[in-house]
Amino acid sequence: MSDNRSESTGSSGLFVGGFLVGAMIGAVTGLLIAPKAGRETRQLLKKSADALPELAEDLSSSVQLQADRLSGSALRNWDETLSRLREAIAVGLEASQRRRQELEQVESPLAAEPHPSVHDSGTK
């Protein structure tokens, strides 16, 4: 469930960033194509250019927030994975120890029984 939330958060951040960049490109293109006097067009371009640092700062902040969220999510996922791995190793060790004890119990009665030797069977 946290994976879906991380993916949607990352996707929304990319969407917002793409939207803002697309809006600026569209605005500049519209200004260049629009039939206005050169002076008016230059003023609009200057205003747009003046807004670029603020837009870049907003975009940078958005990207940084998304990176922080993804980093936190990755750390949580790593911690969960590491915890599950430790549990699996512990369960595996317990199972192998139980199996070893079972095998030792099966082997010990067999070792205690006398085995007739080949030489003894031929002397009777």
The helix tally amounts to 3
- Mean pLDDT rating: 77
Element-level helix/strand string: HHH
Radius of gyration: 37 Å
Judged by helices, strands and strand pairing, the structural class is mainly alpha
Number of E strands: 0
Shape by Cα distribution? rod-shaped
Low-confidence stretches: none
Q: What is the helix fraction of residues, given as a range?
A: over 70%
End-to-end C-alpha gap: 78 Å
Indicate the proportion of strand residues: under 5%
Largest sheet: none
Topology:
Layout: H1 2-33, H2 38-112, H3 118-122
Helix pairs in contact: 1-2
Protein described:
This is YtxH domain-containing protein. 90% of the residues lie in helices and 0% in strands. By secondary structure, it is an all-alpha fold. The chain has a domain at 2-79.
Key features?
90% helix; 124 residues; single chain; mainly alpha
What is this structure, in a nutshell?
The protein has helices spanning 2-33, 38-112, 118-122. It is mostly helical.
